[in-house]
Amino acid sequence: MPSTAKTKKSSKPMTRQETLAYFESRLLEERNRVVKELGNYTDAFNLSAQDSSGESAYSFHMADQGTDAMEREKAFLFASQEGRFLWHIDQALRRLYRDPENFGKCHNCGKEIAFERLDALPHARYCIECKQREEDAKKQG
Ligand SMILES: [Zn+2]
């Protein structure tokens, strides 16, 4: 048997870098999907920025309240569920690029968020325990 042959271990856990690369592609995948869904809305938004005919009064009004492009974008995006989702995905991508060390760690308790949870919800900021506690608090409040 040649000693140089590589043995392939399929159960080998992913390295940190592989995990980050995996979630980056998961986030970009989700992002593409939502951007497509939002396509019609964003077209309307772009138009409303130049056209005050009143046709898109809703988003135009929102735009007036913001202090900068980011705030306007956020206000607009938050007007729809897909938009909120997109915003959260962008935030997660920012975290991943700017602070890869802490990506996938719970913002509350600092524990690693379970892979299964992040796989289903790559933009998750809290571990399932903290998320559950937050939901419970909401119900009481
Ligand atoms: Zn936690």
Secondary-structure topology with pairs:
Blueprint: H1 16-50, H2 57-65, H3 69-77, H4 81-98, H5 115-120, H6 128-140
Describe the fold and architecture:
This protein is mainly α and 141 residues long. The protein folds into two domains: 16-103, no CATH class; 105-141, no CATH class. It is 64% helix and 0% strand. The chain has six helices and no strands. It has helices spanning 16-50, 57-65, 69-77, 81-98, 115-120, 128-140. Helix 1 packs across helix 4 and helix 2 (57-65) crosses helix 3 (69-77). It starts with 15 loop residues before the first helix and ends with a helix. Mean pLDDT is 79; it is low at 47-66. Bound molecules: zinc ion (ZN). Residues 106, 108-109, 111, 126-127, 129-130 line the site of zinc ion.
Number of E-type strands: 0
Hey, roughly how much beta strand do the residues contain?
under 5%
- Helix and strand composition category: mainly alpha
Q: What is the count of structural domains?
A: 2
> Major beta sheet, specifics?
none
- Our measurement of the CA-to-CA distance between the termini, rounded to an integer number of angstroms, reads 67 Å
- Give the number of helices: 6
Q: What's the overall geometry?
A: globular
**N-to-C series of helices and strands:** HHHHHH
- Poorly predicted parts: 47-66
